Amino acid sequence: MSFKSIDRILANVLQQSSLQQQPFQLALQYWSQVVGSAITPHTQLLSIQKNVLWVATSSAAWAQTLTMERSRILTKLNVYLPSPLTDIRFSTAQWQRPETIAKNRATADNFFGGVHPSVLAKATSTEPKAPKCKDAQAAFSQWVKTTQQKNCNLPLCPQCQAPTPPGELQRWQVCCICAVKEF
């Protein structure tokens, strides 16, 4: 029985782990190197399905431009992958950037002057949080109790007598459901 040195064992382990690295991880790792720093901010790699790389783009113009260059991109990217990709699909369908999400959320908040009329201000209660329930029936009972406590101080809709946030009554003079029925 021969003993191998730790260096040789570690070298073998590292080599095997690099061979077993997932193609998507490798694509992510080398994407900016393949397409360049000008294109990288306008793309997001989504997944690899059936040897096809799916990429979200920031605009339709980028999707079209990159589609025209996909064979060149595939050739460069396949050098780094253990099994070659057969195609790349570009689309704007799933494009989301954190700054875009934050901007959309701020726009929605500002649409109603900061707060939507149906949103209730968070109550600052000194009550301890309810304990976690063991079964569905107990959880439902706890939810009913909490909802009733929240709704007991709300004014009632003049049409349906349902507890209604004050913002809805100020805006429509009725609850949102009755307001929709009028339209």
Write up what this structure looks like.
This protein has 183 residues and is mostly helical. It folds into two domains: 86 residues, GMP Synthetase, Chain A, domain 3; 66 residues, no CATH class. It has eight helices and three strands. Strands 1-2-3 form a three-stranded mixed β-sheet. Strand 1 and strand 2 form a beta hairpin. The chain is elongated. The protein starts with 5 loop residues before the first helix and ends with a helix. 9% of the residues are buried. The mean pLDDT is 78.
What gyration radius follows from the Cα positions, in whole Å? 28 Å
Strand content: 5-15%
- Strands, count: 3
- Report the total helices: 8
CATH topological fold name of the largest domain: GMP Synthetase, Chain A, domain 3
Q: Could you describe the largest sheet, including whether it forms a barrel?
A: 3 strands, mixed
Helix content: 40-55%
Low-confidence stretches: none
Give the helices and strands as they follow along the chain: HHEEHHEHHHH
Q: Which structural class best describes the helix and strand composition?
A: mainly alpha
CATH superfamily of the largest domain: DnaA, N-terminal domain
Shape annotation: elongated
The end-to-end span amounts to 86 Å
Count of domains: 2
Please state how the strands of the largest beta sheet are arranged side by side: 1-2-3
Tell me which CATH architecture of the largest domain applies here. Answer: 2-Layer Sandwich
